[in-house]
Amino acid sequence: MKKASVILFLLLALILCIIFALLSGSQHIPLSEILFSDKWDDIIFSIRLPRVVNAISVGGLLSLAGLLIQNLVKNPLADPYILGISGASASAQLAIIAAGIILPFWLFVTIGFVAALLSLGLLLLLSSKRTLNTQNLLLSGVVIAFAYGAIISMTLTLSPSASTKSMLFWLMGDLSYSSALIYPLVILVSGSIWVYAYNRELDLLARGEFFALKSGVNVQKINLIILLSTSVFTAVAVSMSGTIGFVGLVVPHLARLLVGNVHALLIPLSALIGAIVLLLADTLARTVVAPVQLPVGVFTAFFGVPVFIYLLRKRT
Question: Which regions of the chain does DSSP assign to beta strands (E)?
């Protein structure tokens, strides 16, 4: 009952955060005017609601990706960006911004997504021969991430000064490009259902590959499912919003603190907490120094660093 109450509480918290996000911004909108007037419909439905849906989708995807990758590599410090998937997407999209090329948002997102999937293919090629070895996967991912970091640094250095600010803003997280309402939300919902179907196998795998193997789990299959799911979730999130730190690292730990290591509860809980955290962070980014907008990654870091230190001390 207690664990069910936690999920219900978080659902209520998410609804309240959505209302708060719709009302807040450079122009504060009274709740009464939303309910009884269509004066603000353009701002609500054209600007704020798409951004709210984007924040919920990206927050949920990053949190699920973090939960899965920590299970895969058995490392509590792992986050969705550790395998270098995000670096490929960021490199491709920053190159477009640096070149001053203006693309439709759907095409901009698609290019980032395809780049991430190509990077996944490279990662699999480097890290596995006949079987998927998680240690080789982690080491190869870290090396690839460093390589993409160098590409990003070179792109920033060589880009025109006029575009550098927008590129840095994108790197630290930008949810303002949010015209695609359905696409990321469908990925989040369908991806959550897909991963939830393997919750028992994920519980066993969290206790170690040897234990899972002895319990009848096809470890290679589950590892590949985790890797592919993590890569798709991360690729969609980064292509939609840039690289947003700490959400995928901290949120899974918060979820485990609430419900333990039961993935039947961890999966929906991680998605909910991630959605709430990123939605609140984005609302603050839009309102703290309005009308100027700050990168959402600034506020996820403000949240993530103290929370992670607290969790680390509690674990110790």
Answer: none
Give the domains, in start order, of the chain with CATH numbers: 2-315 (1.10.3470.10)
Residue 132 β-bridge partners: 128
pLDDT tens, N- to C-terminus, the chain (316 residues)? 467 788 899 999 999 999 999 998 888 888 777 777 777 888 888 888 889 999 999 999 999 999 999 999 888 888 899 888 888 988 998 888 888 888 887 888 889 889 988 998 888 888 776 667 778 888 888 889 899 999 999 988 888 877 788 788 888 888 877 665 678 889 999 999 999 999 999 999 999 888 999 989 999 899 989 999 999 999 899 888 888 989 999 999 999 988 888 999 999 999 999 999 999 999 999 998 878 888 899 999 998 888 888 877 876 6
Residue of 264, 227, 228 whose CA lies nearest to 70: 227
Nearest-5° Cα angle at 235, 234 to 236 = 95
pTM of the model: 0.92
Query: What is the widest separation between alpha-carbon atoms in the chain?
Result: 63
